[in-house]
Amino acid sequence: xxxxxxxxxxxxxxxxxxxxxxxxxxxxxxxxxxxxxxxxxxxxxxxxxxxxxxxxxxxxxxxxxxxxxxxxxxxxxxxxxxxxxxxxxxxxxxxxxxxxxxxxxxxxxxxxxxx
Length: 115
Prior knowledge:
alpha+beta
């Protein structure tokens, strides 16, 4: 394990409201990570360093949802040894949508969009 993704556990309805509020407040990025159909972890204002891990189409880590004492947690695991000063990345696996979010990861295998 590299790091646990920490934040406030919220439901989908609350996540939708917060995302709109963050946009209205001019917060450039929100850090909402879906755990399951109804549960999201919001690390936008009260998360740890895991919220700053960037996406890559050729990542050196992967995110996995595990259950510890009946509570779901998001954990980032390494796929390979990670060198000192090497950026930690994982594939965000955003759902496919009509409006594309450009991917800037620079990997040879880049898909061109996050979704």
